[in-house]
Amino acid sequence: MLREPASLCPGSLRKATDGRGRLAVSQILTLENIRNYAIALAIFLAIDMVWLNVIAKSLYARHLGYLMTSRVNIAAAFIFYMLFILGIVVFVVNPALMAQSWQMALGLGVLFGLVCYATYDLTNLATVRDWPAVITIIDLVWGMFVSGITSLLSYVAIRLLG
Predict the structure, then answer these.
(1) Phi/psi at 16 (5° precision)
(2) Cα separations (Å) of 26 from 6, 10, 30, 31?
(3) Which of 79, 97, 98, 153 reaches 20 to 30 Å from 130, CA-CA?
(4) Which residues are CB-contacts of 87 (< 8 A; sequence separation ≥ 6)?
(5) What sign does the CA torsion over 111, 112, 113, 119 have?
């Protein structure tokens, strides 16, 4: 039986306190959580790079070329990837591991992707002049897919590694 992922999911954060109600960093920054994070990050980056550089590149250029910069803001991209994967691990993968449910990993992953990508795309649709609705729809579907598949593959990889 799998152990609970080192107190880095919403239902178990109370167990990671230092006795005074403060989170104990040593309970969160465990090798197990770092491994789970690294696995999810590697999977997400591999899939997202294919999407961005091969599949969707011309689509985004055609519909958003007037907004696109010639150089990617590496710092902003880095922060997004770090935070997004943290969310996948904390809110999806670790709870699914605790429940021993690949279906939970997939379902919560799809939901997490929808919520995160909708936050960005629906805000743009509401506030950016001439934001293409087709991009919003494509991004929402992509967000659900990439988050769901990343969560599922991370769950499976972590289970296989024991």
Answers:
(1) -100, 20
(2) 10, 17, 7, 10
(3) 79
(4) 112, 116
(5) positive
| Interatomic CA distance for residues 57 and 150, integer angstroms | 21
What is the full DSSP assignment across 124-158?
HHHHSTT--HHHHHHHHHHHHHHHHHHHHHHHHHH
Stated length of the chain = 162
- Could you tell me if 12 and 4 are in contact, meaning their C-beta atoms sit under 8 angstroms apart? yes
Using an 8 Å Cβ cutoff, are 117 and 144 in contact? yes
Average pLDDT, the chain: 88
Q: What is the mean pLDDT of residues 57-83?
A: 91
Per DSSP, the three-state class of 25 is helix
